[in-house]
Structures are given as C-alpha cells and as structure tokens.
Amino acid sequence: MRPEPRQEPAPLTRHLRVRQDRGATVLEFHGEIDIAAATEIGPHLDRVTHQPGARVVIDLRHIEFFDCSGLRLLYRARARVLERGGQLHLVCTHPLTLRVLRVTGLTRLLPPRPTVDAALEQPEATSGSW
User: Fold this and answer.
1) Of 25, 61, 90, 130, which residue is 20 to 30 A from 80 by alpha carbon distance?
2) pTM attached to this predicted model
C-alpha cells in the first residue's frame, strides 16, 4: 500500500494549517497561540477530534508564543480523541514551549516528538492518567 501523498497545508486561519499525512490529520499551529488564537483554532480542533478513531498530530514547531490558552487546547484535544478511541500525538521542538509542557505535566500525557514523521511512527497515543 502506497502512503498518501503529502499535501500542502490548507490555511484555515492565520494560526492553523491542516493537512493529511499517512491517514492522520496534522494540525500545524502558527504564530502566537494566545486566547485570540485559541478562539480561532478551537472549532477546527473540535471538528477533527470529534471523529471516532481519529489519528491527530498537533505540530507546534511553527509557534512563537504559547500560553495557557494553548495548553487548554491540547488538554481538550487529548480528552476528546481518547474518548472516541483515537490517537493524538504532539510535535514540539521549541525549548520554552517544551519547558511549559514539562512544568504542567503535559509531556507525561503527550510526549513531544521532534518531527511529524517521528510522531506518526508512534503506535498509539499516550493515555497517561490525569
């Protein structure tokens, strides 16, 4: 079976691009992820994470700022995907964002990977306890 061809990310908002990669929906967050960005991203993220058995990758490599609004998006996405028997993977390389994820304990629940390829190689989402 041939892998799906990679598509250029479709711009949905100035903070979010979405594409398909090997049967997974990749959501690339861009720019400053604050309350305004979370308001833009939230409905798109909810639509993707509502699908039963969804495979979702959230890619944070293109962000410049990430606050508690972004953390809420990640926690909500994780809960929704796991409730519906899906998988959620996280891609992040920015040192300050990784620090925030570690301090809040999110790295235990969603271990960040350095690339989308590495995230898609994971067999299933981490389902650590809250």
Assistant:
1) 61
2) 0.85
